[in-house]
Fold this sequence. Notes:
The protein is α/β, with parallel strands linked by helices. The chain has a domain at 79-203: Nucleotide-binding domain of ferredoxin-NADP reductase (FNR) module (Rossmann fold, 3-Layer(aba) Sandwich), CATH 3.40.50.80. The chain contains 4 helices and 9 strands, in the order E-E-E-E-H-E-H-E-E-H-E-H-E. The protein has helices at residues 88-100, 122-131, 157-164, 179-191; strands spanning 8-12, 20-24, 63-67, 79-84, 107-113, 135-141, 153-154, 172-177, 199-203. Strands 7-6-5-4-8-9 form a 6-stranded parallel β-sheet, with helices on both faces. The protein has a 3-stranded antiparallel β-sheet with strand order 2-1-3, with no helix packed on it. It is globular, with a radius of gyration of 17 Å.
Amino acid sequence: xxxxxxxxxxxxxxxxxxxxxxxxxxxxxxxxxxxxxxxxxxxxxxxxxxxxxxxxxxxxxxxxxxxxxxxxxxxxxxxxxxxxxxxxxxxxxxxxxxxxxxxxxxxxxxxxxxxxxxxxxxxxxxxxxxxxxxxxxxxxxxxxxxxxxxxxxxxxxxxxxxxxxxxxxxxxxxxxxxxxxxxxxxxxxxxxxxxxxxxxxxxxxxxxx
Length: 209
């Protein structure tokens, strides 16, 4: 499947003919051998519950797509990315594409979750930061568990964004996560000087149980 980093597919719920769930691709579009998605497990979820053993390696799934217009724009502007939870999926695909194409534009990713266990792919993202000077990562937890070591930022990711990015004039923003997070991030970015026409986002809205 040919797709642009940031797009999504719809996957049929196993055992049904008309129920579909939307998931963004999290893999590099250049990888023709596999298509990766990140699925948030929801108690009683029609699709995510199938990952607890009902689906096995080799099972067939029906997909349709790619869909959506969320994608990195060609420009010279520095990029600000904000991801909440499983919203890291399309952002990861974008980063892999930027790495592969020799990006030199500054990219600052604010990645937020509730607990440390929810902040997956953190070591992979830190490796990208280590290997590429143009990439900066700011991970943050809104509710770090007592007794769990954490030396990153604490608070809502949008609050950390406001503290760490007081000036956003001339930047380009890419946001992915819950509607509440998206709306709050847009307010912060516009207040910091980012033009609304240079803010691109993908709202993750649950499509049902």
